[in-house]
């Protein structure tokens, strides 16, 4: 019984990825172009998310700086989730915790930079505030979310990118987010370094 349950996870994950491949290839390609335009013009990517999505944001920033699957020059990226002192300062000062990422975007973001926001529901108050702050700074916003994109989808501009995984289950959405981020990193590398098969 347990083994069947485990096997069903694999099947469901594979089915969703197969179904999402065609629907998400266009917005992921648009995200590649946005990140590429940003980093090749001296800009940076600011990545954020909550919970497990925070870890994905940090991993993406690490791939940009340290490399993905090939050696290449460092790309400027920063995970807004990584500084625990800064993140907890709002709570200690009784400030609005929903502004924790927005404050960093306003402090660090510049026109031409990219905000990468990850959310299963698309309704996280701190990501909504960060998106608004990014727009104030004339940044492009790339959102990875699930379902219909939630409130984040409604905030996006025509120049922003929405990668919305068509599923309700958080675990499945996160699995596709991980794959989408890998595709994003690989796409940027392919555009910078040329096509190359990775063993």
Automatic annotation (TrEMBL):
<dbReference type="InterPro" id="IPR046348">
    <property type="entry name" value="SIS_dom_sf"/>
</dbReference>
<dbReference type="InterPro" id="IPR050099">
    <property type="entry name" value="SIS_GmhA/DiaA_subfam"/>
</dbReference>
<feature type="domain" description="SIS">
    <location>
        <begin position="35"/>
        <end position="198"/>
    </location>
</feature>
<dbReference type="GO" id="GO:0097367">
    <property type="term" value="F:carbohydrate derivative binding"/>
</dbReference>
<dbReference type="InterPro" id="IPR035461">
    <property type="entry name" value="GmhA/DiaA"/>
</dbReference>
<dbReference type="InterPro" id="IPR001347">
    <property type="entry name" value="SIS_dom"/>
</dbReference>
<dbReference type="GO" id="GO:1901135">
    <property type="term" value="P:carbohydrate derivative metabolic process"/>
</dbReference>
<keyword id="KW-0413">Isomerase</keyword>
<protein>
    <submittedName>
        <fullName>Phosphoheptose isomerase</fullName>
    </submittedName>
</protein>
<dbReference type="GO" id="GO:0016853">
    <property type="term" value="F:isomerase activity"/>
</dbReference>
<dbReference type="Pfam" id="PF13580">
    <property type="entry name" value="SIS_2"/>
</dbReference>
